[in-house]
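Structure representation.

___
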Amino acid sequence: MKSLKIYILLFLLPLCANAQNKQNLSVIAYYMGDDKQIDKFDVSKLTHIIFSFCHLKDGKLSVDSAKDSLAIKHLVSLKDKSPKLKIMLSLGGWGGCEPCSEVFSIAEKRTVFAKSVKNVNDYFKTDGLDLDWEYPAIEGYPGHLYQTADKENFTQLIISLRKELGTRNELSFAAGGFQKYLNEAVEWEKIMPLVDRVNIMSYDLVNGYSKVTGHHTPLFSANSSGDSADHAVNYLLKLGIPSRKLVIGAAFYTRVWKEVNSVNNGLYQSGVATNSVDFKDFETSFTKENGWNYYWDDKAKAPYWYNEKEKLFATGDDISSVKEKTEYAIKKKLGGIMFWELTLDKNQNGMVDAINSVKKSR
């Protein structure tokens, strides 16, 4: 009888561990909306909302407008009904960190900024900061200053922020999911012990500057040298970074190219990047009537669409791929899954619902 109890216990242990990992999985929404749009979504399915974006003004963290202030205050008020929800502020964004390299190169200015972050968090009663500097040490937004010293300065910035924020506020950063960023932008071994997580932007891996189509947000690399969520995760795990501090990203939008020939249904073909389509508009945009066909790359675990008549190609995440990413995050014991951006989702039966269904499944 005793041996039977031991057998049952050994059988249940991995099931309990897996259930606990699912429960602890963070679901992190970047949010660019106002104080009203958020009420269309069920925030109980989220663990974090990151308001996007704040910027640098006179070397301090600045909320840009009264409208943004209202939005942040309303987000914080959601914690009355969802007390475990974390509301964070994000600095920067694509094109939003032009002075970062210069300001953060000076120790005194890093200290001033860190103190301002604490003051803003204290004022709004928000829960921390997400740094979205695109990018330290490597080229990001065209024309923005970047320099080799950014790599060490980013580390010093993290040190200053953690010192000011203590352990009450969370600290994270958004990282490019492509190899050059992984290799050259930040000092991983020095900063990861100081932050709560890194939000890996495992999207835009084929971006709007590319003249060749491809998967912009693949879970797995379609070839040995290709960027993907899995490639970035494995790179960081090999550095010894705990899996619980790694968060992979999903894109609630497609990237679209025009002038794409029909070889391989438009995948890996030359083209001209044009617009994007929000996930909430997929059902009315990517229709057979409009000339679109849907395809699934089982190696990359990624969808794509091709319109032969119009010579258009689209790549992004959908319900199937975001479920794959959530399953992957649970299997790899990652800290969570994040996405850009909540207002691009459907209010019902959307991407957040798909993530939640996997997280809650047994």
Q: What stands out?
A: Residues 247 and 350 are 20 Å apart (CA to CA). The radius of gyration is 21 Å. Confidence is low (pLDDT under 50) at residues 4-20. The first helix runs from residue 2 to 24.
